[in-house]
Amino acid sequence: MKIAAITSLFPNSKEPNRGIFTLKLLERLNKEDIVVIAPIPWFPFITKNRIRNVPFKEEMSGITIFHPRFITVPFFLKSWDAFFFYRSIHKLRNEINDCDIIYSSYGYPDGAGAYYLARLLNKPFCITLHRGDLVHWLKRVLTKFQLTTMLKNSERVVVVSHMIKKLIPDWESNNRIVVIPNGVDINIFKPLNKHDARNRLGLGLDKKIFLTTGNSFKRKGYFELVEAFNKLDIDNKLLLIAGYDENEYDNLNTLIRSSPGRDSIILLGEVHNSQLPDYYSAADIYCLVSYSEGWPCSVMEALACAKPCIVTQEAAGEFITEDLGIVTNYQNLPGDLTRALNQDWNVEKILEFARNNSWDKAAQKMLDAFEQSIRTHCQ
Fold it and tell me: Are 100 and 376 in contact (CB under 8 A)?
């Protein structure tokens, strides 16, 4: 089976962590039979953008990746984004003419644009949705029309959680929806010696470390997490925030610098995926207190490193049980941070959950979805 994966949610040389979950999934399939088209948004008057210099073609993990540019006007004409996305990938149709299926990850404009090309080439189409693409774009009349058309006519619609499934219009009558949660690479993310990890990172051995990761600072609840952390009456506490958000970085940094616990909060900036196992292993507790998530890879990675997780219901409440962590809210967050630190966690149960949800198992389920898509298309 030859697969054409079309999505802007994919790593590149300037953003190595972008859409890393898509790469991890495709790595488990036959790399020689995969071509990736990962368009880059472009607008002529925006020059200070780190992804402008991404090469047109590159290779990652043995997979060939093309990066055509598609025009997108900031804040305006968003209903045209799928058309411009389609035009950018249409130029590369010769690269995917012999593919058996077209796959996309993220509903709009990626999924809608890729769906148009799939219908032009008479190829089966499979889409993965991640929640944000539904919550945001279904609110707009014209983008909602494009999304619902794509969802009704796709051979398979993959969602990463049951919560997201229920966001799809007429989900109860759509028998083509499949739930396939994100996995975790248990060969990379695994428990490391805490002292060794802290020594490598230059972190004190006596610290009580809370860690959070991600690039959308407001959506991730970082401002609320900092406020809650400042209320903790814990000696040697330390909060590590790994991520970068060009719109909110200065605001978060200002909040940290003006807070009473400023010397105990470190804004790390973006951390490469290869360094994350050390950070997870060095931490005592992992936190993800987002307003919105799909099936967060960072929580899966922390669990694979044997770390209990504090999450909001919106972040990972669907799968975090009392054996894996604590589901909290912003009002109870300070007390739950303390409780998680003092609780005696069963490490084996945490690791067992991670092992049962590896990327290898997720890839097999996705391969089944692709095969079902092809059979449905041929009927």
Answer: no
Q: Buried b / exposed e across 18-30, counting CB within 10 Å, b at 16+?
A: bbbbbbbbbbbbe
CATH of the domain at 288: 3.40.50.2000
Tell me, yes or no, whether 220 and 347 share the same domain: yes
- Please report the sign of the dihedral spanned by the C-alpha atoms of residue 71, residue 75, residue 77, residue 81: positive
Long-range contacts (CB closer than 8 Å, 24 or more residues apart) made by 116-119: 116/82, 116/83, 116/86, 117/6, 117/86, 117/89, 117/90, 117/93, 119/153
Tell me the residue length of the chain. 379
Question: Which of 200, 187, 215 lies closest to 298, judged by CA?
Answer: 215
Tell me what the mean pLDDT of segment 71-77 comes to. Answer: 84
Let me know whether 157 and 17 are in one domain. Answer: yes
Query: What's the token pair of residue 52?
Result: 């402008």
189 domain residue, yes or no: no
Across residues 234-248, what is the average pLDDT? 93
Q: Are residues 123 and 211 in the same domain?
A: no
Same domain, 308 and 339: yes
Q: Within a domain: residue 188?
A: no
Give the Cα separation of 184 and 287 in Å (integer). Answer: 17
Handedness of CA 76, 82, 87, 91 (dihedral sign): positive
Share of the chain above pLDDT 70, in %: 97
CA 354 to chain centre: 17
Q: Residue 138 has which token pair? A: 């279904």
**Are 119 and 244 members of one domain?**
no
3-state secondary structure (DSSP) of residue 265: strand
Quick one: tokens of 183?
């996995």
Q: Are strands 208-213 and 265-269 parallel, antiparallel or unpaired?
A: unpaired
Give the structural domain span for 133. Answer: 3-183+359-378
pTM of the predicted protein model: 0.89
